[in-house]
Fold:
Amino acid sequence: MDKNTKSTASRITEAVFGILFNLLFYYLLNRFYTLVPFLNEDFERILPIYNLAIMVSIFIHASRILFESKIYKDIGEIVNTGFFVYIAYLLWTIFPFNLEWFNNTALWNILIRFLIVVPAFIAFISAFVSLFKTLIDIGRKV
Structure:
């Protein structure tokens, strides 16, 4: 098997696993989010955007089967990261969650704020760097 065939096979495998993971996450999120005790009724307000982000991710993974351009892959990752940062912002807007069933509410409050802000900040920086590198790659091809 030559290098290009292996690359195509791994690209398709990655895309299929991405699609399957997103479909599973979509099902679980929409079926069981009401069972998560700390999510309040405001979560329903952002659920359609969460679902849109999952569907966009599925579309990006499906199109990766057809397109093997590195620039296309980078743009898809930037779009996915953009949705992630936006959803983190939306989660922040519906915070605080209902943390009454935890023993130490103050500790969990800090922990959940950390888990919303820090990954979103890192993803934002990552998307900015990816965008910059992608623009450089596009500039080199022109």
Remarks:
- The chain has a mean pLDDT of 85.
- Residues 105-141 form the longest helix (37 residues).
